[in-house]
Amino acid sequence: MLIQLQENLADPTLDNIFKELKSFGFKASLVETRQGKYLICNGRQETDIRYFGSLPGVRDIHIVEDANKLVSRKWKVHDTEVRFEDGTTISRNDLTIVMGPCSVENEEQVIRTVEFLKENNIRFMRGGIFKPRSSPYSFRGLGIEGLKFFSAHCRANGIKVVSEVMQVSQIEQMYEYVDVFQVGTRNSQNYNLLDELGKAGKPVLLKRGMSGTLDEFLASAEYIFSNGNENIILCERGIRTFEKSYRNTMDLNAIPYLRDKSHLPVFSDPSHGVGIRNYVEPLALASVMAGADGVLIEIHECPPKAFSDGDQTLDFYQARRAIYRLRETMELRKRLVVE
Ligand code: PEP
Ligand code: MN
Questions:
Q1: What is the number of other CB atoms lying within 10 angstroms of the CB of residue 78?
Q2: What pTM was estimated for this model as a whole?
């Protein structure tokens, strides 16, 4: 159940609503969205909502039958823009390109990548410092020390930092150095992490679980949203199928589906989606035509030397070409596709 509150509610009125909810066995948390203030209540299913509707301070009651109500168009018809404190937005009108290495390896690499991004007018740099690796013997990231110089060079050049958070305790450590928390495919259903990212409030780039359905994916986003954070980007990054010819199967279907069902921005990550360097650009372009609001692409000055995911990583020459073609494709989409 969602309780929409009246504006400028006095504390005693709110306390009374909490008290009533508690006496009926509900656990309620207060969230503030751009649409207003709400109490997200969980507990028993059957209840007489008219009683709560009649309490002072209550504007409306919504029964939540879907696990992904708040992130769906049933809740909000218009597209959500992700907003940053400096006024930067991620929106439908402007293709967002996020580029950077799979892993941050050293300061020199960050400096060279930032230079490249600046030259090409790219506003977001990705880079893992906590790396979820399939083998415990692989490189697992530089940790917070790596994030500090990664962040310093980006900020000095007006570039936003996107980096993966793997556990709740890392949120606080990373908080001041990142602009977007990335949730990886392996943590897509780590509900404790999602709850806490909801409370933390910074934008979250949520990847789809590699075996997750789209309903499950949207429900994961709902965990973040229902904790009061609507700055969420959904990111399709390929799924596991019976096909073994490439790392994952890039589910392009997901892009128009998610754009249709949800008001959140949708990105695609063709680097992990296909896992083969030469196929990354064509899938990135296809994602844009399918309606993606942004793409995430792994780049490295010398991909064969990358500490992780070199096989799917573009070098700077390939990245420059991809940026040009992505922007041209976006222009084409704007001309051809009436939304
Ligand atoms: C990554 O972005 O480097 C990463 C580990 O992605 P995913 O969680 O999609 O595998
Ligand atoms: Mn990677």
A1: 8
A2: 0.95
Distances (CA, A) of 27 to 20, 62, 127, 172, 299: 11, 16, 38, 25, 45
d(CA 216, CA 209): 8
Sheet containing strand 58-62, strands side by side = 27-33, 36-42, 2-5, 58-62
103 CA → ligand 2 middle, Å: 7
Best residue among 164, 188, 240, 267 to mutate for probing ligand 1's pocket (most ligand atoms within 8 Å of CB) is 164
What gap in Å lies between CA 151 and CA 110, rounded to an integer? 9
pLDDT tops 80 at residue 60? yes
User: b vs e for 285-294, b when ≥16 Cβ sit within 10 Å of the residue's Cβ?
Assistant: bbbbebbbbb
Residue 301's H or E segment, with its range, is none
Whether the predicted pLDDT of 269 surpasses 70: yes
Q: Convert the pLDDT of each residue in 2-39 to its tens digit.
A: 999 999 899 999 999 999 999 999 999 898 887 789 99
